[in-house]
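It would be a great kindness if you could assist me with a short task in structural biology. The matter concerns a single protein, recorded as an amino acid sequence and a row of backbone structure tokens. The record follows directly beneath this note:
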Amino acid sequence: MHALSVGVFAFQLCGYVALSTWVEWRWYHRRRGKEREWKTQPGKMHGKIHRRGAARDDDDDGRGRRGYYAWGLPALDLVRASPSKDGRHPSHACYATCNLVVSSLFAGATCEAYLAGDGKLFGLFRSTLVNASAYSVASAYSVLVGAVLAVTWQSVLEYYWHRAMHLPRVYRLLHKFHHHYKSPQPWDDLFIHPAESFGYCLILYSPAFCVPSLPVQAFLLYMTIMGACGVLDHCGVKMRWPFGAYDTQFHDVHHRSFDANFAFPFPTMDRLHGTHRAS
């Protein structure tokens, strides 16, 4: 086990926690009571208002009941004396914690496989990282092209994987857990059946093994996009990139309607298959 692999595992885990915590604090704590300005579904909230303790005058649940802000990290509910389960699925804390750890293990294992010298898996990906001359020649253009190829690879596989998750029997056994939340909030993206989550992790990390001549910078850029969009897709906060390239309300529509907007993170595959629904 290499120290770099352990560091990648820790970075993946802590990075997810940091981004989710920032979103939760920035909107669900700091702008509580102003949901109509920023929330995708203002009338639907869960797991954020608690009735014990002191709070600011505007810090209530909409019915005049004072509350306090509680960090929503699912792992805390495994050790809290009084777990926060307002609107949460009974398996939320266990599944979400397990999925975060497994995803981070995938990141560490991907790094470890590379460092072990398994060039068969990575092709030129390995030489780009360890060969100084190849590293210096790698241009912004090659990084951009590599990231686009990785995103395209993932987008195609994820779309058909997600459609398969909505087959009646598969949905009942696996995907129904994720759709417990009709209006997702921070940390809800982790609530997936572990078997489904494992399958998606195989897709998520597959470009490192399957996309030829992928520079390491391109793979890191790809993973940054996927990680950020995975959190933002389920944060319940209105965010939109210029020209409508990305909109957090796109996936929010899927949680409301089930039969549209299966793609992640961009709507291209839905547009091609006629399953796109405007947000």
Notes: The first helix runs from residue 3 to 29. The two ends are 45 Å apart (CA to CA). Residues 3-273 form one domain. The CA atoms of residues 109 and 221 lie 18 Å apart.
